[in-house]
Amino acid sequence: SAAEKGGYDYFMLKEIAEQPKAVADTLLGRIDAGGSLTLDEIRIPVSVLREAAKVVIVACGTAFHAGLIAKYAIEHWTRIPCEVELASEFRYRDPILDQRTLVIAISQSGETMDTLMALRHAREQGAKVLAICNTNGSTIPRESDAVLYTHAGPEVAVASTKAFMTQLVACYLVALYLGQVRGTKWGDEIQAVIRDLAKISGEVERVLETMEPVRELARSLAGKNTVLFLGRHVGYPVALEGALKLKELAYMHAEGFAAGELKHGPIALIEEDLPVVVVVPSPRGRSVLHDKIVSNIQEIRARGARTIVIAEEGDETVVPYADHLIRIPATPTLLQPLVSTVPLQVFACELATARGNEVDQPRNLAKSVTVE
Ligand code: AGP
């Protein structure tokens, strides 16, 4: 009913709008007055977290994209090697697991069969499993050694939005917590990022307030067949997620690429007026990546692409090459997905609507996939 949708036309719109609150709720009570993380709810003993030799993340779909982003954070802040694998592939390749492997299973529903089978396999091999889950008491957390709940609230739309954002928050919390308990050289940075995380909900809100041009752009592209998405570093999984949303909702051919891979093949796809969304990393800090992606934008534009550039406020270098410019607030490098994902969600939702698709119930899809 309209009341359930809180005045929005679709649950997806409501859930996109709820993201600042979902993000804040997932942080609530997990940062203490001194600015340290308190994740005692992770009942895995600190000694086990200190001795973990490897982290393996298993998940499907959008949750898998959260896992890909988590890898950058975990390896950077903890120096523990981290693999991310599609849950549906995991157990069939005889993965190497033991007591010193920490497996993280990410799932909104907690009922995804592929993810459940992956974690059962991991536990049989002696690994410890931490679930990141949005649904209290669901099967995946019940069968795991520990759980960190995301507090997105119920997600009704088939296409995941607010649950993804809170999965990211939970992944950052786990990465920072592992860094905190293991004591790495990044101690000061970890403290600073915890402070930035505490403010991020307001930044998400700010992005939401500037989405009208994105909706307009989406409507203007309703007749297109293909949209490509490019990103680097944590912007790469964001590109994959942007493409998945467009497939699910707009039933369009959409692909995400690592921008550095362009020259190894995908650049052959570029043709006159092809929309290409580019997620640009911050020009601060690891700016080498920024400069490389700006040259990618130049290259594809020279070949006729219609460039849709998502870049940090104040980043002027992209202006001459952007046919459409979408601004996002400055964040620490690793946290950028929390703001860069939002325009891609809005874009997919509006394109789907413009194409007359059923936004909350896309064809052929179910909210949780309880078969293998
Ligand atoms: C998200 O938009 C999708 N509908 C889908 O990829 C989903 O993320 C995937 O099926 C995993 O679901 P889960 O998080 O409930 O395990």
TrEMBL record:
The lineage of its organism: Bacteria, Bacillati, Actinomycetota, Actinomycetes, Kitasatosporales. Homodimer. The active site is at K367 (for fru-6p isomerization activity). Residues 45-184, 217-362 form the SIS domain. Keywords: Aminotransferase, Cytoplasm, Glutamine amidotransferase, Repeat, Transferase. Catalyzes the first step in hexosamine metabolism, converting fructose-6P into glucosamine-6P using glutamine as a nitrogen source. It is found in: Cytoplasm. It catalyses: D-fructose 6-phosphate + L-glutamine = D-glucosamine 6-phosphate + L-glutamate. Its EC number is 2.6.1.16. It is an enzyme of class 2 (transferase). This is Glutamine--fructose-6-phosphate aminotransferase [isomerizing]. It comes from Streptomyces maoxianensis. One of its GO terms (molecular function) is glutamine-fructose-6-phosphate transaminase (isomerizing) activity. The gene is glmS.
